[in-house]
Amino acid sequence: MTDASTDTDHVPRPLPVTEAAAVAEAILDNVQQVIVGNRTEIEHIIVAVFADGHVLVEDVPGVGKTMLARALAASIDCSFKRVQFTPDLLPSDVTGVNVFNQQTREFDFQPGPVFANVVLGDEINRAPPKTQSALLEAMEERQVTTDGTTRELPDPFTVIATQNDVEPGRTYELPLAEIDRFMKKIRLGYPSTTEETALLERVSGTHPIDTIGSVVSTANLLRAKNTVGAVDVSEPVRAYIAALVEYTRNHAALGVSPRGSIALMRGAQARAILDGRDYVVPDDVQTEAKTVLSHRIRSDSGGDSGESIVERALKTVTVE
Question: How many CA within 13 A on the CB side of residue 110?
């Protein structure tokens, strides 16, 4: 007998839109027990998880980047692994390694921390490009190949990477191929005085990260992800996304890739779910555009930033 939550091919059936929206709200409320403020940024991460994407969180030290990732993982009944990126970290430290078993006289694969549902790559830009590249296959194809053997990663699979932007002399620049694999790039910023006062009260005793539990099962998260795939994107909205992307290509040395346009559409679908709709409207695209497109753009030396180019695109390009 087939479980009611799956079809005959064992693919989780989509949740109704209202239930998928409730899943998102439950995660958001739970994370906010740990993170004071930053509701918009938390929503962006939930959108990425729903849309099967990855997130790069860039900011100064101490603003809660790692804590945000931990709180998200704790809110979902799934596996979580943290990788502390350092200059001496090896690719096999991320993906795993074959170890010789003296008893069986064979090599056994010991999976690395990338074999988890939520992977936190902490201070990812402290590791050299060779180690960073260990994530490329995992992030794009949801698999890892070691010694000629390919192994699938668990579903769901999301990488949340953090990087500090105040020590450029002690860090490595992320390769463009890796940056393009992050669906979103966000910043948290400093809390307001009111938020920081509330934060100090909240952590004066036991830290809330030590007490929160999961509020969403992996099964329901998978069903919510499938709900995103069923959200309708009309032809005018698809054309609008394509026109925004085309604008970036015409006004920068390196514009947004097709991977970026797909990410924007998926993000808009997930955003519609958060708003309780089963169809995408232009506002969904506009809400997602800056965090999805900006980090993929490279201007000529001294040119406009990716953010400013996306802002101009949003003001210039209209929905037909």
Answer: 9
Q: Please state, in angstroms and rounded to a whole number, the distance separating the CA atoms of residues 34 and 25.
A: 15
What CATH superfamily is the domain 231-320?
Magnesium chelatase subunit I, C-Terminal domain (1.10.8.80)
pLDDT digits (tens, 9 = 90+) for 196-237: 898 888 887 778 888 888 899 999 999 999 999 999 999 999
Q: How far apart are CA 182 and CA 32, in angstroms?
A: 23
Number of H helices, E strands in the chain: 13, 11
Q: Please spell the DSSP secondary structure of 118-177, one letter per residue.
A: EEEEETGGGS-HHHHGGGHHHHHHSEEEETTEEEEPPSS-EEEEEEESS-GGGS-PPPHH
CATH architecture assignment, domain 1-230: 3-Layer(aba) Sandwich (3.40)
Question: Tell me: the pLDDT tens digits for 139-191?
Answer: 999 999 888 889 999 999 999 998 877 666 678 888 888 899 999 999 888 88
pTM summary value: 0.89
Whether pLDDT at 275 is above 50: yes
Range picked from 82-91, 162-171, 175-184, 256-265 for highest mean pLDDT: 256-265
Annotate 229-284 with three-state secondary structure: HCCECCHHHHHHHHHHHHHHHHCCCECCCHHHHHHHHHHHHHHHHHCCCCECCHHH
Per-position DSSP letters for 97-124, written without gaps between them: EEEEETTTTEEEEEE-TTSSSEEEEETG
> Which is nearest to 313 in space by CA: 288, 278, 276?
288
